[in-house]
Write the structure tokens for this entry.
Amino acid sequence: MTEDQFLPTETYSSQLEGSVTVQSPSNIALIKYWGKYGEQLPKNASISFTLSNCHTKTTLKYKPKIGEDSVFEVYLDETLAPNFKPKIEQFFARIERYIPLVKEYDFIIETTNSFPHSSGIASSASGMSALAMCLVELEQKLLSEPMSHEQGLQKASFLARLGSGSAARSIEGPLVVWGKHPKIKGSSNLVGTLYPYEVHPVFQDYQNTILLVETGEKQVSSTVGHNLMHDHPFSEQRFQQANGNLSKLTPILKEGDVEAFINIVESEALSLHAMMMTSNPYFILMKPNTLEIINRIWKYRRETGSHICFTLDAGANVHVLYLKNEKSEVLQFIQSELKIFCKEGKFIEDRTGKGAKTLK
Ligand code: PMV
């Protein structure tokens, strides 16, 4: 697969006015992407569970541009959000050679998140994948020979990646790989692809409850974080470790070896944070309550034999992962022992999902 295959093959035959709405979820990495090169290309392969309830809904209203340059406005929860514009301008500039309609139309972008505003949940994966999918839906209407459904999804993932790397993994689900890996057939640095091998039923419909330890702006932006991997003393070992962990995961997913899964997933989360603690400048993104929660999860697992485990994003919130058939016990445990460590007692119940969907 090359970038060129995403270049337009024809000039648009028609001009349209209308709107398209897409709902796209967030995702949680099991093997983490941290470190990139070139134009949003990952230094190692990653794999994630696509989520379900944590999503962005975006309506793209379009009409042929009136002035010399195309213009757009962004609304978040029905309120004009000019602070979103620079990121989207940069996104449009990156993708215009692949989808020239961004230069030919004026847009109104209306977006809402299902998760609370400033909850500390990264909205870039769901937001960028929703917008990318809206643009592909529009392009499909303008082409005299539309792409196949699969090509459309691939293009949406390709574009989403150029907005936010991890967004490439939100178009489909429940398990998506992004980054070329010698043992994963069809994997690519350019797009997220559905995990192509057998997955044991225990890993289907996995549950994920997000414990909101800290809300508000991220302490370290992804851009800063990825850049810190450039001169990092352990970066090469980290990229190898991640790729090695992905190799190990294939038989684990097939055989339903939940204990081995837990070992890899928790180690990945701590390795991601270890990278941030050992970069320069250095950061501790966990909070005391993050550690309290992790220790309680370990204690509960030891004492009950539960298959609960955790993973972390680049922040203090904890993603609790567990099997569907342990749901009621785990939710009870969260209510009675973990909730007190969440900001205002807040947590979000989620589970794996199928990716972006067009609503109209
Ligand atoms: O997509 P970005 O550039 O915001 O990077 C996200 C990286 C992590 O969320 C920390 C890990 C991952 O693989 O999603």
The first strand starts at residue 18 and ends at 31.
